[in-house]
Amino acid sequence: MTTTTHNNTPVTLAHCQSFDQQDPLSSLRDFFSLPSGVIYLDGNSLGVMPKATPARVADVVAREWGTDLIQSWNKAGWFQMPQKVGDKIARLIGANAGEVVATDSTSINLFKVLSAALNMAAEDAPRRKRIVSERSNFPTDLYIAEALCKERGYELMLVEPEDIAAALTAEVAVLMLTHVNYRTGAMHDMAAVTSAAHAEGILTVWDLAHSAGAVPVKLTAAKADFAVGCGYKYLNGGPGAPAFVWVNPLHTNRFWQPLAGWWGHATPFAFTPDYQPAPGITRYMCGTQPMISLAALDCGLDATLAAEPLGGMDALRKKSLALTDLFIQLVEQRCSGYGLGLATPQTHAQRGSQVCLTKDEGAYAIVQALIARGVVGDYRAGDGERHKDILRFGFTPLYIGFEDVWNAVEHLRQVLESGEWQRPEFNQKHAVT
Ligand SMILES: *Cc1c(COP(=O)(O)O)cnc(C)c1O
Question: How confident is the model at residue 7 (pLDDT cuts 50, 70, 90)?
């Protein structure tokens, strides 16, 4: 499948329709419940509901809870759900079964792994008292790191992506990065960055919020140390779905994580007064987990893993790049002259599964005008300096097709040409952007 036309011929709607006909993954869309009249380019913020989810959730509520009540901890396998769902996530991130649990939120899991990493560094290299991260990392990651630094008298150093290599010095305990930047869609080379950090004696913590289910991730091969990620974005687990946590098995049993609750205990039902961490990743659990949400996340994973017989993450990646290439090409071809810029890298190896356009004026209102037309993307505010306001479009290859890309760009062209984004109702800011 390719989306390039010969001799710079402009891409047409008919080309896009033929790309859909040749798409070996087009049947995966049937696993999802897409509202009609909507082109959903926000799966990087909240994934689409799988068709299987409502019945599964209803069954967990009515039968497992309503009828079987407390027996379901054993009978329905509730107690093992975080590990069972974690094993499915492991298949998508280059980890092994038994190394991942689905639990808590990304922020909370980050607190656990960052604490464990700092404990490890404190033992192995006590003079290292610095965490390095990217200034444009997702803010919650920075807040968690800032709080931990405050608690321990450490320093959080924030750098631009091009300055990361120079920041890897003998003062640094942990390099904490998000693999694919939420704002620009720029992707790090996980193996190369991890290896550069290790060469300087630095541990790595990777946030996979915009990677898991979107791009191939190879945690074991990259020799990464710790990773966390999100269940409600590309994994389609539903609003507030449990997140996940992975720890390199070389490190897992070395330290407790700080939220030492009973679900991370080796024998929770022995009810002993002292804490004895469970071996393996189970020690990264804290308290009782949300079974209804875990069931919904399980459905999201099944829909993603349905791609395995069709080539899995590698095939999804190929389609994702074809979709984002097409979007970039069509915006250049059909929306030039309106002051749009591109914030996402053109180079495939540096691009996640989203495309961000910049616009000096009206980015928020253009996104609102598009949403009113059924093209759902989102807006992220700039910082007034390095980063401009962006229009952000996520392309989930499981359910987005090439004709969707054509139609989205056509709506964008019409919104820009007509100037309808200047209408007052599109310039009212909502609480959630
Ligand atoms: C979405 C996202 C989060 C979300 O964290 P929550 O604890 O689930 O609210 C964290 N980090 C990154 C990089 C994200 O993209």
Answer: low
